[in-house]
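Translate sequence into structure tokens.
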Amino acid sequence: QLCVDARLPGQYGGVEGCAVVIDAEGSWSDAGGVDRLWSMASALVDHVKSSALRKIEANKAKEIANGGDNTKTTTISEQLVPTWFTPEYILDGIHIFRVHDLASQTCTLYNLPQFLHEQDEKGKPVKILVIDSLAFHYRVASSINSGNKGNFLSTTTSLTRMAAFLQELASEFDLAVVAV
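Result follows.
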């Protein structure tokens, strides 16, 4: 929902940005995840359009009550109901990176600044980064190496470094980071 809401235009109180998802568990990349995103995007579009139509109707009523005609209503309608705001538009700004192991997750995260700069240059700034789940591949690796006590310290150190990196990323690019 946060990723879909990040696409909300500024005129509706949104941040009008893109979203990046690091999908470690595969729940965003499978058919169920895509269907869920489509459903949420469609619901947001419907909500924005119905809200805009309510404003149009209120303006029509006000004009008629004041003895005017509704010639301005067409202009108001064009301003309040953006034809470009579609589920496709919303989903086009949600970038999902599927990572299959700890190495690809780490590599993807540490290469994000380049992607974020490119998006900024295109005028499509990323406003939210979701990592689902940050610890998934660490848990898998630790279950394989469960007899190694040094692995726990290594995991803790890696996660601490990752948290510091994500804080720097959030600050540098003015984006929210949600680590599941």
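Note: The longest helix spans residues 31-65.
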